[in-house]
Amino acid sequence: MLGVMKNALPFWPARKALKAHFPALRLTGPRVILRPPLPGDFADWVDLRERSRDHLTPFEPAWHPKSLTAEYFAHRIGIQSRDWERGLSCSFLLFRAPDNALIGGVNLNNICRGSAQFASLGYWLGEEHQGQGYMHEALRLVMTYAFTAQKLHRLNAASLPHNGRSIKLLRHLGFEEEGFAKAYLEINGEWQDHVLFGLNEETFKRQGPIIA
Ligand SMILES: CC(C)(COP(=O)(O)OP(=O)(O)OC[C@H]1O[C@@H](n2cnc3c(N)ncnc32)[C@H](O)[C@@H]1OP(=O)(O)O)[C@@H](O)C(=O)NCCC(=O)NCCS
Predict the structure, then answer these.
(1) pTM (2 decimals)?
(2) Which ligand 1 atom is nearest residue 172's CA?
(3) Is residue 133 part of a domain?
(4) CATH code (residue 46)
């Protein structure tokens, strides 16, 4: 239980709700759309996350017992909006282009400026939306946004050693394996080893337009 509480959103339960004010931004590809979350996304978000609980929980920080409540979602997007405004992170929800169905999420976390200019990439898909190339396209869009609009120079990503899908995706996107960190992140209530990947702007630009 302690692990669960430690990994909960900062300042939860909220004393005062933060209002979400994101930039009016949409990243659009042939088959997917990314945009910051809105309060009205709650029903689709909770439905997708609940249906994918067993698929997602082994790869994420432990879910708070109230993580699928409207109150928690409102607080979560309030924090994400505040962090976007402060230049600390960019949070996107991911939609399938033809029908606007919510299928997952992508985050640029831990944005570090100064001589670093890097961020950590986080991503998830609802279980039934895997295996169709949606995340590959979504990450190419977010990577382009990171290296152009956000003017970052490097993206980092970390994967559990047994997360084959994630590792395959990162390699396919041009990320290179750069190291191994013991007890790197607290995932599903336990400090777990991770394989570290990185990609810099120069390598990304050499790749050219979206590749499948
Ligand atoms: C990691 C995760 C996002 C990867 O999802 P994914 O479906 O494998 O990735 P994509 O959406 O890019 O799909 C790639 C697959 O679609 C296939 N595909 C089908 N049509 C495609 C198309 N038009 N373009 C590209 N790929 C296509 C690819 O061949 C590939 O399948 P394969 O792995 O069986 O060869 C997903 O497994 C997930 O959400 N896992 C749980 C959360 C998680 O691990 N997050 C990351 C923590 S580090």
Answers:
(1) 0.94
(2) 12
(3) yes
(4) 3.40.630.30
